[in-house]
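Input set for joint prediction.
Command: fold jointly, output tokens.
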Amino acid sequence: MAERDNSGGGLMNAPHTVYAGEFPEMKHHLPGAAVPWINALRTDAIDAFMALGFPGTRLEEWKYTDLRSLARHHFTPSATAVGFDATALQPWLPGNEPAHRLVFVDGHFTPELCPFNTLLDGVTITSLASVLDDAPDVLENVLGQNAGLEQPGFNAFNTAFMTDGAFIDLSAGAILELPIHLVFITTGIPETLSTVRNVVIAGANSRASIVESYIALQDATCLTSTVTEIITGEGADIEHYKLEQEGPSAFHLAGIYVRQGRDSRFTSHNITLGGRLVRNDLHVDLDDTGAECTLNGLYLTRGRQHVDNHTWIDHNKPQATSNEWYKGVLDGHSRAVFNGRVVVHQDAQHTTAQQTNHNLLLSGDAEVDAKPQLEIYADDVKCAHGCTVGQLDAEALYYLRTRAVDEATARSMLVYAFAADILERIRLQPVRQLLEQELAARLMDTGALRLQQEQAVH
Amino acid sequence: MLSIKNLHATVDDTPILNGIDLSVKAGEVHAIMGPNGSGKSTFAHVLAGHDQYRVTRGEMLYNGRDLQAMPPEERARAGIFLAFQYPVEIPGVGNIYFLKAALNAVRKHQGLEELDAMDFIALVREKVEMVRMDESLIYRSVNEGFSGGEKKRNEILQMMVLEPRLAILDETDSGLDIDALRTVADGVNQLRSDTRAFIIVTHYQRLLNYITPDFVHVLGAGRIVRSGGPELALELEERGYEWLNGITAGAA
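tokens >
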């Protein structure tokens, strides 16, 4: 029996009711179960999720991302972290650089994998589950404040089922020299659900770099739902990296919600390399004067990958600045979606906002849907955007070949050049090197593959 | 070295070259002149292997090999070099990285070791000085934001580094001031040797004041309408291409 669609969009048949049905039993085992306000939040969340359901393609925000393939599976959280050899992690740790590292396996914090560096006073970096259980007060007016439950998507789902993640609390003036590295690993048990929630509270004039790595030890049809909420106090400077490197069968639904205070800076590097279906919702509220955000994004897709980046910047107050640079390289039958929404509210005079999204199609079967969306309600602003979808420059290719460079290498050089300026903005050297290597390796594959195909034709 | 017989080529089914015959031996410098639209640049790109042009008749043999069967990179490895009239800007690809990739591709083909970083830099610095180019340009993206003169110097730099057997210069002199023109000419004259040949495509005679050609050919409507020695260039300079219209018409 089909259910009625009451969400004004596209409620799909029932997959959400299965999850919701499991909630009453599951909630007793979730962190913070003994804390009334957390219980209430989870209950609100499951109600919101029941009302919204899985978003369907009739919703404008989900028009190009069809979740039917996701809805065909039923994902279950693993009871505990599966033990594995920590050395298996090595290839994924950028340059084996020292960092404040938290490792989560199938959604569970594994302290034995976290050689901690000495922290300054006034800096907390710990598992969110432990805070929910033992010291929840610090979260009471924070958790769920930015990631609204009413938004069609997976905030409500994530809030109802969140199991663990990082809690980062920087007191006023705290400056972290070493990056914070959050590693989220799926071990490869099919249909495992990891529900990750991270919370970052950056006090006035604090500064830190936070890297979220999502990796798979073995490819499997898993689902990672992750939400990161970040609050930057006056003059704080937070640099955030999200590196999606899961396997080609992974489903990955992510939200990053940022609320910025006066003169604070937020820089995001949102890099998607893996996953079968990836959705990133990145929402920044520029909530006070002088706030500045820079959003860099790069997606490299191939095979049948589907990557959807929805960014949304609200200029709520005057004299704030947003810069956005997203680039995509699409090969095979892959598909990418970019939706860049910038809203300059009435109050936000002297806003500076610029956005670019450039896409390179390497295959005739790849497809991109790009939509810049500027809504300007103030009259004294500087806003610009540009969006392109194109192929490799045939004249540049020819020029390189007349200089003895073979076609496959020439293609690789041009693709690398296209993506390189996003990587050049990455300040953390080990992360940049890791990505440069990954990009080079990926291009080598592509180049070699194409050459083989060509030789097969001749 | 190069033997071209009855070469016909089209672009988008429009005939541009209509039967070119040309023979170039090692050690020779040939100038190809002609009015705009006579097919000079097309001829240069057909030799380099641009896939926009289709050879419909005739043959091109380079050291006995059929050029048509060779993609542009193979022609380059075999020693053919085209200095572009409009060098292509390639944002994001470092000029020096590009030079290194090109040189190593050529060296690999010749069975030579790749140059190590130190030797390569030393070589490039030496050539950069020869072409009087601002050294900072080698660390920028290929031709990106270069002035017209800088682009042409960059072409000559590539030629000096790659040391081709057959260099084709496509209107390298156009838009150059006298200093840059001299630099281009010096580059060619330095490379001139018994084992190397040049085809200099130009609209004006002035580059030939500095590079004395062995042969001058005049192109009209896609074929060579007149060949001669260096004096032919001077005659053209004096009388203009109009003078040849009668000859072209007569030949037609």
